[in-house]
Amino acid sequence: MSTVQAQPAPLAEEAPVSLWRDAWYRLKRNRLAIFGLCVIVLLAFVALFGPYLTPYDFLSQDLEARNQAPSLAHLFGTDDLGRDVFSRVVYGTRTAFLVAVVVTAIAIVIGTVLGAVAGFFGNPFDRVIMWLTDVTMSVPNLLLVVVINASLKTPIAQWMEARYLETLNPFYRETVWIDFLLVFGSMALISWPPYARLVRAQVLSIRSRPYITAAQALGLSNRIILTRYVIPNALGPLIVAVSAGLGTAMVLESAFSFLGVGVNPPTPSWGNMISDGLRVWQHYPHLLAAPAAVLGLASVAFSFLGDGLNDALNPRGAK
Amino acid sequence: MMKTENRLLDVKDLTIEIDTRSGPATIVDSIDLHVGKGETLGVVGESGCGKSLTMLSLMRLLPNKIRVAKGEAHFDDRDLQKMSNRELRKVRGGDIGFVFQDPMTSLNPVMRIGDQLAEPLIYHRGMSRKQARERAIELLRLVGIPGPEERIQAYPHELSGGMRQRVMIAIGLACEPKLLIADEPTTALDVTIQAQIIDLVKGLREKLGMSVVWITHDLALIAGLVDRVVVLYAGTVVEDAPVDELYANPRHPYTRGLLASIPKLSDAPASRLNSIGGTPPEPGRRPQGCPFAPRCPLAMDICRTHVPKLEPISAAGSHRAACFAVEKAREAA
Fold first, then answer.
1. Which ranges constitute the DSSP H helices of A231-284?
2. How far apart are CA B290 and CA B8, in angstroms?
3. What's the gap between Cα B269 and its chain centre?
4. B282 has pLDDT over 80
5. Is B12 in a helix, a strand, or coil?
6. How remote is the C-alpha of A167 from its chain's centroid?
7. Dihedral of alpha carbons B142, B147, B150, B155, sign
8. B46 phi and psi, to 5 degrees?
9. How many distinct structural domains can be found in chain B?
């Protein structure tokens, strides 16, 4: 006999068909979007649990087994130092996700706050913020990142080195995070303007909707109206932009690493693996193919998901 | 005439302008309005005559480029136009409840209706979430929504138009305001629901003892609801009378035109519906004299050069009209 009593479920847990559930229902029927979602979930899993999945350490070199073709022992073969390419691709996934998520998160916070303030409060905020956006967008992305990294990386590394020799504090010895910080910072700095523009446009259109006037007529404060009425209604297009933005950030990180201004070796990144592989691709094509294919897959997956979300969150556009 | 101290809302000489490329244009021209305590006022006029803007201006909620050029609006002896924003926010939703025209777009689509009802209660009455939730259920029951315990979890798109308008009314009533301003609350609803909403507001008004301003373009609809009617034309008050007096003895030619254009069951079958020829003037292109003169069957020379004042035409002074023809007829009598 069951000991569980038939109790009426508490109301709060019982959500009726919400907008989000509706959107999920539409998303489920979009095969490409679901394919993208599966790939992303798989890659995210690999990124999270990478160290438990790899057969080798990404740094361990086996100079006896250099440049080997893919085999059962080395799924994607080995590189010129005899490192297992599969393990390096898995670690590269970590790097790619870390960069993509952190950069996109920073860019969205900056973009949403600036865009919402610009759109909701109007001039003079609008003018200043949009001016800032235009200036940022007018600087070529690559150039800005190269300048930041080239001008700051060496002095900071030297300063850290000097501090370490002075204090022997191990905190100053670890420079990998500086690397990440600069990459995150510079990429976020160039990534926020599109989000700011998107949110501003959304807020401008939402601001004139009757339910905002209705909320004002209820005497609610601007803060409540902005956070509970305006931003939640602007989220749909933002989610789509985020999905596409994550993919873009991954490609961007690879591009920077490829050019040597991103994550520094020996930390594996798809970009620097592609860069290394490109030099020897005529002889060892797998060194180029493996990271390039994974990068391509991830990028396509994010686009598909973004497209699917776009359709799912815009019921008017769907059949 | 009603004594000034009994007035809950007293609007004097209110003028609203819009910025256009050729300079400011007057939309609402020196309107005088008042609502007594416990009184229900109907504000009637065709689309674009400034009914809604007048009400929005009271709460200082006018859209961009439209502003109050002059005038005062006293609510409970405080000037709404001169209040600080902080004071005004307490009045909005707290002392004056607002019900908007379109229930389809006036509710936040991504917020459960229970939360939308709770928001003003938490903000104005300092209730806890739990208290506000219980009060929200009570309010939904008050406006006749079945199964309010489940409905507070619903999103606006899950409710029908009539239900949404009931929710809007519940939100407007949440803090038991002294004045409820309803801006064409039944326009988007079908006729049977319109009658239900009118009955609902009638019942609530008696239960809560509040004043109501009911904006509409439908004279017939509000006959049984309001105490007094103010007829607006092109941003001016053309007639102001107790409701029965207005129906029995309309004086202004515009009011007569409006009443004549209501179809009656006694009309001959297939008879043409009466209408008022022409269109109201655009803001910025108002005629020099009486704004109604170009469409008026009784227009005289003076009407095209001078603007008539709103003058009492009954002994008690409760019936007022702004028309030279009416004045002339009275003098002749």
1. 231-259, 270-279
2. 30
3. 34
4. no
5. strand
6. 36
7. negative
8. -80, 170
9. 1
Nearest residue on chain A to B168, alpha-carbon basis: A214
What are residue A6's phi and psi, to 5 degrees? -75, 100
How far apart are the C-alpha atoms of B250 and B259, rounded to whole Å? 8
User: What does the alpha-carbon distance between residue B125 and residue B77 come to, in Å, rounded to a whole number?
Assistant: 22
Q: Do B107 and A213 touch (CB under 8 A)?
A: no
Mutate to test the interface with B, among A126, A202, A211, A229 (most CBs of B within 10 A): A211
d(CA B70, CA A299): 60
In 3D, which of B256, B223, B228, B225 has the Cα closest to residue B241? B228
Mutate to test the interface with A, among B52, B108, B123, B173 (most CBs of A within 10 A): B108
Closest Cα to residue B197, out of B209, B185, B207, B179? B185
pLDDT value for B22: 82
Contact A219, B94 (CB under 8 A): yes
What does the alpha-carbon distance between residue A178 and residue A61 come to, in Å, rounded to a whole number?
A: 25
Prediction ipTM score: 0.80
Give domain limits for chain A.
29-51+74-313
Q: Give the model confidence (pLDDT) of B147-197 as tens digits.
A: 888 888 888 888 888 888 888 888 888 888 888 898 888 877 777 778 888
Q: Give the separation between CA B102 and CA B221, rounded to whole angstroms.
A: 17
Cβ–Cβ under 8 Å, residues B239 and B231: yes
Q: Is residue B203 part of a domain?
A: no
Contacts of residue A54, Cβ cutoff 8 Å, sequence gap at least 6: A84, A86, A87, A90, A91
Of A210, A219, A228, which has the smallest distance from its Cβ to B124's Cβ? A219
Instruction: Compute the nearest-CA separation of A210 from chain B (Å).
Output: 5
In tens, the pLDDT along A29-79 reads: 888 888 888 888 888 888 788 777 777 676 666 666 666 667 766 667 777
The residue of chain A nearest to residue B148, with distances taken between CA atoms, is: A11
Contact list in B for residue A18 (CB cut-off 8 A) is 155
Q: Does domain A29-51+74-313 sit in CATH 3.40.50.300?
A: no
Rounded mean pLDDT, A73-91? 73
Residue B239 has pLDDT above 50, yes or no: yes
Neighbours of A168 (CB within 10 A): 9
Host domain of residue B320: 236-265+284-333
Interface of A with B in 209-268 (CB under 8 A): 209-211, 213-221, 224, 228-229, 232-233, 235
Distance separating alpha carbons of residues A292 and A185, to the nearest angstrom = 25
Note the pLDDT of residue A15: 41
- Residue B289 falls inside a structural domain: yes
Question: CA nearest A316: which of A26, A15, A36?
Answer: A26
